[in-house]
Amino acid sequence: MDFRERIVKTETLSKDIHLIRIRSERITDSAVPGQFVNVRCSGGLDAYLRRPISICRVCPSDKTFDIAYMKRGKGTILLCDFREGDMIDVTGPLGSGFTMPQTREKIAVVGGGIGIFPLLYLIDSCNDVEKTVFLGFRSKDAVVLKDDFEHSSNSLVIATDDGTFGIKGFVTEPFFNWLQSNRPDRVYTCGPLPMIKRIAEYCIERDIFCEVSMEQRMGCGIGACLVCACKVKEGSDFSYARVCSDGPVFRAEKLVLE
Ligand SMILES: Cc1cc2nc3c(=O)[nH]c(=O)nc-3n(C[C@H](O)[C@H](O)[C@H](O)COP(=O)(O)OP(=O)(O)OC[C@H]3O[C@@H](n4cnc5c(N)ncnc54)[C@H](O)[C@@H]3O)c2cc1C
Ligand code: FES
Predict the structure, then answer these.
(1) Whether this model's pTM surpasses 0.85
(2) Which end of the chain has fewer CB atoms < 10 Å from its terminal CB, N or C?
């Protein structure tokens, strides 16, 4: 099967973060928030170089979706070579999505670094829901998609590790402060392990519904290789789930976060 689709836009969002907009009826017609695509990063012989990237936004009217990615290693460096008009090989949509909130529920969304991208698609897709968003970045230079998150939420709080933008420190602090006087119906989070671990523990202790999107290293992306295994609770014991096919979204109480 041919998975190649046309790139309609590329954009540099910050020094290391880039966006690609792809036209694909196959993906826009079936994707749900929380899912990802597996992108072949090179048009050459490097066929093994598929990388999982979350769907960040879908525009059903023009059949396009966006991915935003951080330039880190071989795969994402190659992705930066793609230009508007090029064809790109994307399989998906893959994995499980978030449980969508119900009308008039109050949700809190907490994202850190590259973990913010699937959360934009989530809040974009929730109508008639009260949405409070907390985003954490390293510094002002790393802040991206601020206007988009602002537009799609009722309230947006940004924290940077060095205090060069928004609140100084980890994003968990303003989130936990907010929880002193608010009780959301649902919490959704994606980002670095220490961040999601603290949020998951906090929500489990207080019996707040919490879903976590895991960004594990992957191989095949379709449940065949077990490279993406993560520990999950199984009664008083544990077993392994595949992030690519059983996830990437899991209920917080299901995960063993170490
Ligand atoms: C379900 C899912 C959704 C994702 N969504 C996004 C997204 O929307 N935007 C985005 O920028 N990235 C996302 N990632 C992470 C992305 O897949 C990796 O950053 C990418 O595979 C790195 O490939 P590379 O060849 O550039 O780097 P590599 O050369 O493979 O590695 C470079 C560095 O990145 C680290 N790294 C590699 N893979 C991961 C990973 N999965 N998570 C964390 N660190 C990793 C390595 O340890 C190494 O330090 C997602 C991952 C998963 C599993
Ligand atoms: S990446 Fe191969 S099983 Fe998940």
Answers:
(1) yes
(2) N
